[in-house]
Amino acid sequence: MLKRSLIALSLISILTGCSLDGDDGQDGTQGIQGEQGTAGQNGTNGTNANSALNISLVGRAVLNAQSPEGAAEIVAYQASKKWIYAINSSGDESVVNIIPADTFDKAALVQDNEGIVSAINLTSTITLTLNDNTPGDANSIAIDENNQMLAVAMAAKNVGEAGQIAFYDISGDAPAFIKNVPAGFLPDMVTFNHDGTKVVVANEGEPNGDYSIDPEGSVSIINIVEGVVADTATNIDFTTYNSQQAELESDGFVFANPTGRTINGNVINTTVAMDLEPEYVSISKDNKYAYVSIQENNGLAIINLEDNSVELKALGFKDWSNLQIDASDKDGGVNFKSYPGLYGMYQPDTISSFSWKGANFIVSANEGDAREYFFNVTDEADCTAKGGLDYDEDDGCLAYIDESRVEDLTLAANFDYLNNDDNDIGRLKVSTVKGDANSDGQYESLYAYGARSFTIWDSNGLVVFDSGDDIGRITASVHGEAFNNNEDENEGDTRSDDKGAEPEALIIGTIDERTFAFIGLERMGGIMVYDITNPYDVQFEDYFYNRGVIEGADITGDLAPEGMVFVPAEQSATGEPLLIIGNEISGSIAVWQIAAN
Predict the structure, then answer these.
(1) How many CB atoms lie under 10 A from the CB of residue 47?
(2) Residues 10, 478: Cα–Cα separation, whole Å
(3) What residues are paired with 566 via a beta bridge?
(4) How high is the pLDDT of residue 588?
(5) Are 236 and 305 in contact (CB under 8 A)?
């Protein structure tokens, strides 16, 4: 796959005015970017452009090959044993598979005619059956090397029941259960702080299908003192913001829910605290702050871990008017256009953080996410009688949805430059809760899900850098009409109407004193690499992937990167840094060596 990453580098170098084999030199210093993420001007000619990294696939495992979807979604790494841990949710029970990564037989990773590796050289040797000690479904895992401890976020089976964090001692030959600690509703992500004295949990608190139960989102903090886990957690909620919805919306938060409607006999009244759904947590390098992405609401919570105070930051909106986007899956291939009046809700999934000049910065993978909820009814008439919006034989009665295709909306006069059809913006999925500023039934602006980018934010919630339209342009250059593929089929352009390649996974790693961000594209399957050492001078570095894209062929390789772990060189069996990726659809774990040239 190295040749593909070099091709990607060459293509983007050409796009930015620099050639790998010409005399043109490196780009000039990049300007501070606003919400559009516009790059600075090219510099004068200089030396040839070279990749700083040598990236190669060195390890691969497939869990539950007969039914792999969900078998390798979230991964963790135990440096003391060089073990990979992966949540496996493909069966009837929640388990964690443990895969030794202390040696790699690279010769076993044979490529097919397309250059894709489907072979394996790693296997699971230990299966930890989580439901032996904790009921529910596993959503996230984290490892603390300080105390040799594993934490697993376990969601309860029923909406409205609190989840738990299951703790295991991993210092011995196999994990040993310690205890369960109650958390909030639907714990979706768990992490340790850097010295192993706290565990922080994002509790998403999603509603049930008819919104009759809508738990509050929250963040749980569990203290660990001298290696002993507390029996209870401190749960931080957002009830103090219940009277501030209008102010939050004006700042750029998004609240999408069926408040005021009667559904299935219940009058819905959703508060701010119920609507906010924490997604992912990153701990600042100094252990002082927990940064929490609140995806559907397009916001960020900053929690001071010294006093548990909370500050909400709206992320605002990305202006697509000076950038290019392919907005249709029915326009016959690669067709980028600019659309004044179109905005993107950042809605990050994974976030990470790092420091520069003593200041903290947050990095986000701007996936985007709509809301759509169904409940069970007997038939279409029953659905209508119970206040449903639509009926589907497979999904049931639609209680709420906040998205629509643009062609199904009435646009205001400022959009007269559009045809609003399949060859233009008509297929694009946008929010129905924003854009009609004067409530006259006509949309003066459009808000798409996600930003098709990654962003660096400062601790004030201000954009420092955004990758703009890089992801779409680079993947289109590399894959041609196969770009914006879906994760479970080979048919190009199928995701152009719906969040594009979909940046979801993200991790930061340091190689030879340079800081790199690795961004996993859930639908396309590839990984973008950027040098973010200086957040005000960010450089695209590479793009690599192990996924077949031949139109109509069976899917091959690694599909839908969901979780990633960066392993520093000193903790790696190869003596070089590693990037471990859990791929949700293929059920595969890919281990890439990221060596400095």
Answers:
(1) 9
(2) 10
(3) 579
(4) 97
(5) no
**What's the CA gap between 406 and 447, in Å, rounded?**
10
Is the Cβ–Cβ distance between 220 and 234 less than 8 Å? yes
pTM: 0.91
- Measured CA to CA, the distance from residue 370 to residue 429 in angstroms comes to 9
Beta strand residue intervals within 429-485, DSSP E: 429-431, 446-449, 454-458, 463-466
Compute the distance between CA of residue 118 and CA of residue 96 in angstroms, rounded to an integer. 22
- For tokens 């203290």, the residue is 223
223: Cβ–Cβ under 8 A, 6 or more apart, which residues?
Answer: 197, 198, 229, 230, 234
Residue 311, SS3 per DSSP:
strand
Sign of the torsion formed by the C-alpha atoms of 129, 134, 139 and 144: negative
DSSP per residue over 235-289, as a string?
A: EE--GGGTT-HHHHHHHT------TT-EETTEE----HHHH----EEEE-TTSSE
Helix (H, G, I), strand (E, B) or coil at 449: strand
Q: 85 near 75, Cβ under 8 Å?
A: yes
Backbone angles phi, psi at 129, to 5 degrees: -85, 100
How many other CB atoms are there within 10 angstroms of residue 182's CB atom? Answer: 16
Sign of the C-alpha dihedral computed for residues 210, 215, 217 and 222 taken in this order:
negative
DSSP labels for 180-197? Answer: EEEEEESEEEEEE-TTSS
Q: How far is CA 168 from CA 133, 139, 148, in A?
A: 10, 16, 9
SS3 assignment, position 579:
strand
Contact by Cβ (8 Å): 334, 320: no
Q: Give the up-direction half-sphere exposure of residue 362: CA atoms within 13 A in the CB hemisphere.
A: 29
Residue 569, SS3?
Answer: helix
- Whether the CA torsion 418, 422, 428, 430 is positive or negative: it is positive
pLDDT in tens, 331-376: 988 999 999 999 999 999 999 999 999 999 999 999 999 999 999 9
Long-range Cβ contact pairs of 263-266 (< 8 A, separation 24 or more): 263/210, 263/211, 263/212, 263/375, 263/386, 263/387, 263/388, 263/399, 263/400, 264/210, 264/212, 264/375, 264/386, 264/387, 264/399, 265/386, 266/210, 266/211, 266/212
Joined tokens for residue 193? 């702080």
Query: Packing angle between helix 2-15 and helix 470-479, nearest 10 degrees?
Result: 120
3-state secondary structure of 408: helix
Residues 490-549 pLDDT 10s:
999 999 999 999 999 999 999 999 999 999 999 999 999 999 999 999 999 999 999 999
Tokens 């209508």 appear where?
Answer: 384
Sorted by sequence, the CB contacts under 8 Å of residue 247 that are 6+ apart come out as none
The whole-angstrom separation of Cα 189 and Cα 340 is: 36
The strands making up 561-567's β-sheet, listed across from edge to edge, are 53-62, 588-596, 578-583, 561-567
